[in-house]
Amino acid sequence: MKALLYHGAGDIRYESMADPMPVEAGDAIVRVTACSICGSDLHIYHGHGFSEDRGFCVGHEAVGEVVETGRAVSRLRVGDRVMIPAAAGCGACRPCLSGNVIGCENGAAACYGLSAALQGSQAEAVRVPSADANAVLIPEGISEEQALLMTDALSTAWFGARSADIAPGSSVAVIGLGPIGLMTVDSAFVLGAHIVYAIDPVPERRALAAAAGAVALHPDEAVAVIREATKGRKLDSVVEVVGSDATVDMALRLVRARGTVSVIGVQQSRRFAFPLERAFAAGLTFRVGTCSVPEELPTLFPLVQAGRLKPETYVSNRLPLRDGAEAYAMFDRREAGTLKIILEP
Amino acid sequence: MKALLYHGAGDIRYESMADPMPVEAGDAIVRVTACSICGSDLHIYHGHGFSEDRGFCVGHEAVGEVVETGRAVSRLRVGDRVMIPAAAGCGACRPCLSGNVIGCENGAAACYGLSAALQGSQAEAVRVPSADANAVLIPEGISEEQALLMTDALSTAWFGARSADIAPGSSVAVIGLGPIGLMTVDSAFVLGAHIVYAIDPVPERRALAAAAGAVALHPDEAVAVIREATKGRKLDSVVEVVGSDATVDMALRLVRARGTVSVIGVQQSRRFAFPLERAFAAGLTFRVGTCSVPEELPTLFPLVQAGRLKPETYVSNRLPLRDGAEAYAMFDRREAGTLKIILEP
Amino acid sequence: MKALLYHGAGDIRYESMADPMPVEAGDAIVRVTACSICGSDLHIYHGHGFSEDRGFCVGHEAVGEVVETGRAVSRLRVGDRVMIPAAAGCGACRPCLSGNVIGCENGAAACYGLSAALQGSQAEAVRVPSADANAVLIPEGISEEQALLMTDALSTAWFGARSADIAPGSSVAVIGLGPIGLMTVDSAFVLGAHIVYAIDPVPERRALAAAAGAVALHPDEAVAVIREATKGRKLDSVVEVVGSDATVDMALRLVRARGTVSVIGVQQSRRFAFPLERAFAAGLTFRVGTCSVPEELPTLFPLVQAGRLKPETYVSNRLPLRDGAEAYAMFDRREAGTLKIILEP
Amino acid sequence: MKALLYHGAGDIRYESMADPMPVEAGDAIVRVTACSICGSDLHIYHGHGFSEDRGFCVGHEAVGEVVETGRAVSRLRVGDRVMIPAAAGCGACRPCLSGNVIGCENGAAACYGLSAALQGSQAEAVRVPSADANAVLIPEGISEEQALLMTDALSTAWFGARSADIAPGSSVAVIGLGPIGLMTVDSAFVLGAHIVYAIDPVPERRALAAAAGAVALHPDEAVAVIREATKGRKLDSVVEVVGSDATVDMALRLVRARGTVSVIGVQQSRRFAFPLERAFAAGLTFRVGTCSVPEELPTLFPLVQAGRLKPETYVSNRLPLRDGAEAYAMFDRREAGTLKIILEP
Known about the structure:
4 copies of one chain form a homotetramer.
Chain A: E1 2-6, E2 12-16, E3 28-36, H1 41-45, E4 56-57, E5 62-69, E6 81-84, E7 87-88, H2 94-97, E8 110-111, E9 125-128, H3 131-134, E10 136-137, H4 144-150, H5 153-163, E11 171-175, H6 179-190, E12 195-199, H7 203-211, E13 215-217, H8 219-229, E14 235-240, H9 245-254, E15 255-263, E16 272-274, H10 276-282, E17 284-288, H11 293-305, E18 315-320, H12 324-332, E19 340-344
Parallel strand pairs in A: 11-12, 11-14, 12-13, 14-15, 15-17, 18-19
Antiparallel strand pairs in A: 1-2, 1-4, 3-5, 3-9, 3-19, 5-6, 6-10, 7-8
């Protein structure tokens, strides 16, 4: 089959690779009908390798159709339309069974497309291990595109917003307005925020946030504007969706005494300079981490079905999978107008 | 001064009474600039007397201007624009100080306008006991009309919705679409409901709920329609805003296993036939009671300031206080188009 | 095999019946090494039949050893030591997988031993449907006896206590001091209660509660004593563990304004006279229902392993299964000294 | 009067100073009957000056008797026995009124004894500003000694434990076993912890923790022992009660994926090297800050009255106030057996 393979920093190629086959009795093979590029794929693209492997298939956001099931698969049938959450677990421990894949007690939690150990899904087909647990039937009233955007982006955005303790009446900032950041703005409003400051250097992204009801700010002005607007009180909740020391530091400057910062941007800093003295004086809850997608879905499905969340708003491009290399380059340039890119095998 | 006085069932008169004076050192006198009629005023109007008194001033929703303060009043000044929450407490115990007037440890909690003990506020002026605690400054960005609607109606609606454990993604029913019921519909959406069924026999009220995004149903069809729409699963949360045995019973038929019913309609039943066997089999949380207005305000102020809640939508009439008797009669007839009536002294 | 079979009110017999066999591929057969009699078994014993069936095996609390597994069973192995929670679900839907058997979306939730549809476990062996989900491995550090007491009694007690919103510093009453009531007293202390009133007419049961740290009261004196001790304020949380209208009514008289009543006694009243007017005036949370055992276990296992909860304290008798008829009669007489009866096949 | 005055690092003297007098109408003067030395007093003693002042009175833990009240004081009377929480606020804003002194909206929150602006209470008498809000009547059933230990130590310990999200069944570590650390161990058990690891280099302190039911560990062995005991899973909740980078770092090594670290040791680090990459991979809630004493008291009073918490256990010395200089030196040496020192004027 054809797939997007990683050959080093900046080098993603559309090439042939072996068709995926069931390895364990619980595996299923899913023919991918649509996949997408995530901001965290850029970490791989930039060569911050999560592994030393080369030639493996990338990508962790996909939807498709079950075409083959191992003999221990009991809940899925060939022909089922499924979404594949970004990470898979053992599928047998209590956390996995209840949707907390990341908390897999057998240490089997892994994201697709980071190494040859679990091939990615930017491909014509993908092997899903323990598929009863790790593939999710797309429910009625959810389009394939919406389901694709819930395999990671919207689930992460929602998790980030609720991890920031956003409640009705909250004042909020979201730092970073890529697709996940924009969906975080929407999530904050559904959680009851009365005001959301949306911060990003790219004017087109700020315009989208403003269209969603946020007060859009350039990073250079954000701290000063928010301090003045709140008379120095600052904000109840801040969500960092970038993954740099500077933006985490900004988040810590924007939060009020006893407020909450939620960091969902992929972090690679080992010695972030945390202002412990200041945090102690004011009081702070600081949350860092990522979501377990299946845990978020029971809440998100009805909200998307009812149109309260519309993640499809942030799809900017649909390209054939064969143009994947150019799609990565385009997404990496953060060009005006480029947001979520969907690839079709 | 002039005021609306109660003389028995169906007999409210616009008459003269003595001007209110400070009795205790903590009292303040507020010149009423607007007051309103609440659904629970109809209980008095119908002669379900909360007391045997006659000739006292009715009403418990008012805003106005401080015109006199006792010598122990330290937070209010003459000239301040204030709202007067429906019930007053001692103002000195910890619950009162933190806004939980209803939980007053000195047993001083009382609603205005139920007896001669605490005269009502459908008048040109009203005495506010322990005014530092029992009058609230109207903050910037809140109109006088909005503040008036928060002295009871919106606060009760919000309390009812959150007492029903409504969370993002919830399915909800609201039974009874007077002003509080309609504000409960709005509150449910701000709390994240993905669908709200709004139930009332009056077509005009259903139309307003539909305009707010709800699925409007006549009581006769509600149980059947909701069971079918949810494939028998029924709803996460139901709010009863009427105060009759029949509607409480309906609420208990609409809620799913392990769901929550919140009853905020004024209840006068001493032996409601509760289906304990059925509730036990399914699991149920059943909440009954009313709100302490000042507890809800810190959440509601920013939501109203930001326009996420617009209680003023449900004002249908503005009349001079002198027409109060007719206003009561009109409100009691539940005529098409009559919702919240504001009276101006 | 031998088992206890129901032949009508008061008529439980130790008789032969067919050995259980796997029916579905997910079934397992468990050789029962110990089972026990629950207060709710007395409802069957008294002929309040949950079905019209006769000659079926009773009982829903058992531990044992897996002796046979259907071919779709993947998590259990022959020889495993397991506990069997009181109710079983489909084992495939998300609620079942996460431990909420009662919320089974396929409507498959059923308690063992109520009819011929799912034979009970007061027998030499029992069929466990969807055994991967419905049997639980006994973890290290939990004795077989403790595990048996967690298949229903302790799990229900714990659920009842936490459903009463007991928190550190709470004042509590527990009405009914059978084994579950006594474990509820212990649970209340683990949840942080500062005082627990324990109410029962049987002096020996009151003595056990007193030994556990509670203030023991006879039902005739409870309301008066508690009102005086709390200066009329009454209690934060009340748990009803009996299942009669009189005790539910007492619970509603003992709870403070805005407090919580949790009803876990099996209720058969269809028209309980609920004091809605009084509840409305004071504010109340009223919870009714029963637990889903597997949901409680992740919390209970470490508490029992660490000795913070000792359900084995309340075992009063160990008898051979063949004496089951006499055991039922003895338990039904509520004799001094009779609490939890364990039966050994 | 006589008092302990700060004259620079290591230089605390028992000297005369002017008697305190009411400055504002809301002030009260309290004759101190007992005061105590807090771990955070050592920061001052070591000259990490919170101010450049010299000659001011130190100390922020005291109980005593009201001897004079300003004319605006309405809730306190001369002769009342009161405890004085460590920090005072304006006493008029909603946060202050509800007990959240630290969140004082008028920016008036200040700790006693850090500068000449608000003189300390290691003295024969102390001025309490806005005394209605900032002094608390000692309730029946609480000894003066217990009340003294609740003005800061036990309240902070309890806050630290609950900020660590300790719940029934939790596994916990407490790092630092001074008086607050030991009370944190006790608090963790009341919150339902099934195991508490207590970590400190001083053997006598470890022995006290072991007597309280904890597993006592030397810091050098803690990480290895806990990783092995939990099979690498680590702990649900960790409380840091020291205030050094090394112990915060240890806390971050002891917490499980998605667990919570609560830091209540006084922090002075401006650039703590936070392992953001590791925290992101595992998921973490990190809380830093200190308590507002009056917020904790409604929960703590019944727990102390009922004997579930016994802070008096950790009093090691009672000395006359005149020996204060020696008391500071003794406490600073962390000698075996020296824990909480009470000073009597």
